[in-house]
Design a protein that fits this description.
With about 525 residues, the chain is of the alpha+beta class. The protein has 13 helices and 30 strands.
């Protein structure tokens, strides 16, 4: 297959698109569809369909397998049929929520995550071409892990000649050491999955109180109304909220729930298409919401369903106040009834608004108040508020990010990098840099980039690799393609230091991070 076709096919399956999905076929017809579509090559066995019935994975994992059947093996299936098959497989052969813990960043498309695995062997053998999370999000018996190793070498024979393979017997180690290790740590049968399958359906419909934070933009909160949609596990949603700076934020869309908890939303927020990748457990949705066409631009989100017996403070906006300050405080949560318990030294001047979803107060902070303290409303606990007098240090988060050149008539868009300045304060000992330092939160900063090292100075990365927006911490990389103005007509890649400066009195506090400006990512599968 020509590269271009492959890239296009992968892009078209790059996410679980819901927008055009019609009502799903019932499980019975999905099963019939599997037989009709897959038995041309797979076979009926005592344990189900060969290869297919002996694996469990996420919706995105199933999507990638079926897409590979299309791209590599020539399976003919319509987009709608593929949606039914993926839904059915994810529902019947999925992962329990606990089995995805620690690897959800890959589903949530947090592509700046730097993975760290205990096993050096696993890292070198299995997490160098793709994320280790792709592996951690699957469950198979030994025979299926073994088939997977064979598939790797059969499909990509150069595996053995690449770095971290040609220095060792990759195939031998994969079969003799990795297969038993994977079958032990990521087995097909598990207690967690058995228990998850035995659980009843979860409550979904109603009003969800939602709170989030987007790098380079700030916090937001609001109410997401969820109603029945067209078809099983489908929901219609409408979000009505506000950014912490007071601007309104409104969205409408739909969501599909896989495996009883894997919430995948597709909505338009203030004219911009966005996706939600959340996990639903015990009346709480947690995950990430990001721009459909720029998944690097996203927000951490948590939401809680207003329902009988559920009370919880999700967040306090803003989550930090300066000693002596008077401010409006928004406590967001579910079942917010009863007395508001604020940290000592925070005095309520006025109750601006009260509902089960939010309590808005005007407060004044005592000049001597310090530290991170819990915030509760009646039975609802879980909030916290940081009170500080002086910022002792500024950290840039993420400390390291990858931006990618793009545009300029090429098929891949630029991938920007977004940073926040996180302020820290000295704890009770008054000394900065000790274990009792506490995180204040994200504060405004003025942003700049500098060459990271000598090579960056020599190649004038500052001039070519991109621009940092001084006010927001959003870095937009340069155009794709060779640049005749550069040494050896190199493209606009680069290595830059990210600098945040926070003013405090006459002082300027500095925090540093790094952005690598890399070539485009041509292959962008649902699980990196
Ligand atoms: C045209 C032949 C063909 C059809 C049709 C086909 N497959 Fe496959 N399938 C293969 C081959 C060959 C392999 C082994 C190589 C590989 O993993 O790509 C495979 C392997 C698999 C695997 C194992 C992948 C892994 O990671 O170990 C799964 C799961 C799978 N197929 C699912 C399906 C499903 C579901 C369908 C029907 C919707 C289907 N296949 C239809 C040829 C096919
Ligand atoms: C040489 C690069 C390379 C190495 C090393 C590698 N992989 Fe892969 N892996 C790939 C590619 C390429 C794919 C195919 C992606 C696709 O087309 O769906 C893949 C796919 C996968 C999938 C998804 C298969 C499916 O359809 O469900 C899993 C799981 C996986 N690899 C596990 C592993 C494990 C375990 C190891 C270590 C034993 C490993 N990989 C090492 C390149 C690699």
């Amino acid at each position: 297959m020509k590269m271009k076709t492959l890239a296009a096919a992968l892009t078209s399956v790059a996410a679980l698109g819901l927008a055009l999905a019609a009502a799903p076929a019932a499980a019975a017809s999905a099963e019939a569809l599997l037989r009709a579509k897959c038995l041309a090559c797979h076979t009926e066995t005592d344990e189900g369909l060969s290869r297919i019935s002996q694996q469990r994975k996420t919706p995105e994992g199933w999507l990638m397998s079926v897409a590979r059947m299309q791209i590599v093996h020539g399976l003919k299936i319509t987009d709608e049929e593929r949606r039914s098959v993926v839904k059915y497989l994810a529902d019947t052969q999925g992962l329990a929520p606990s089995e995805t813990e620690g690897a959800r960043y890959a589903l949530e498309r947090r592509l700046n995550t730097v993975e760290a695995f205990e096993s050096e062997q696993f890292t070198q053998m299995c997490a160098r071409c793709h994320s280790g999370a792709r592996v951690m999000l699957q469950r198979r018996p030994a025979a299926e892990w073994e088939h997977l190793v064979h598939f790797h070498l059969g499909q990509f024979p150069t595996t053995e000649y690449q770095a971290l393979a040609r220095d060792r017997d990759w195939f031998g180690i994969a079969l003799k050491e990795m297969v038993p290790e994977l079958a032990r740590t990521l087995p097909l049968a598990s207690e967690a999955w058995k228990q998850w399958q035995a659980r009843g359906p979860q409550a979904v419909k109603g009003e969800w109180s939602l709170s989030g934070h987007m790098s380079g933009r700030g916090g937001f909160s609001g109410v997401m109304k969820v109603a029945a949609g067209e078809g099983e596990d489908r929901y219609a949603l409408a979000f009505d909220g506000r950014w912490d700076d007071g601007k309104p934020m409104q969205g409408k869309g739909q969501a599909l729930i896989y495996t009883g908890y894997e919430w995948r939303g597709d909505l338009v927020v203030d004219g911009t298409p966005m996706r939600q990748v959340f996990a639903l457990e015990d009346g709480v949705l947690r995950g990430r919401m990001f721009l459909r066409d720029h998944d690097e631009v996203g927000a951490d989100v948590v939401a809680s369903l207003q329902q009988a017996g559920s009370s919880r403070v999700l967040a306090v906006h803003p989550a930090h106040l300066k000693a002596g300050e008077t401010a409006e405080l928004r406590i967001v949560g579910a079942g917010l009834k009863g007395e508001v318990a604020l940290p000592r030294g925070v005095e309520v001047l006025q109750t601006v608004k009260r509902s089960a979803a939010e309590v808005v107060l005007r407060v004044k902070v005592d000049a001597a108040a310090r530290g991170v303290h819990p915030v509760a409303v009646g039975e609802a606990a879980g909030g916290s508020l940081a009170l500080y007098d002086r910022i002792a240090a500024v950290k840039v988060t993420p400390a390291f990010a990858v931006a990618r050149i793009g545009g300029n008539g090429t098929p891949t868009a630029k991938v920007e990098a977004r940073f926040d300045a996180e302020a820290w304060a000295a704890g009770a000992d008054g000394q900065a840099g000790t274990a009792d330092d506490f995180r204040i939160g994200v504060v405004p900063a003025s942003w700049a980039v500098e060459p990271f090292d000598e090579a960056a100075v020599r190649d004038e990365d500052l001039k070519f690799a991109g621009l940092m927006d001084a006010a927001s911490g959003v870095f937009v990389p340069g155009d794709a393609g060779p640049n005749p103005a550069r040494r050896m007509s190199a493209s606009n890649v680069g290595n830059l230091k990210v600098v945040a400066e926070v003013a405090q009195g006459g002082e300027r506090l500095r925090g540093e991070g790094q952005v690598i400006v890399a070539p485009p990512r041509w292959n962008n599968p649902p699980i990196p």
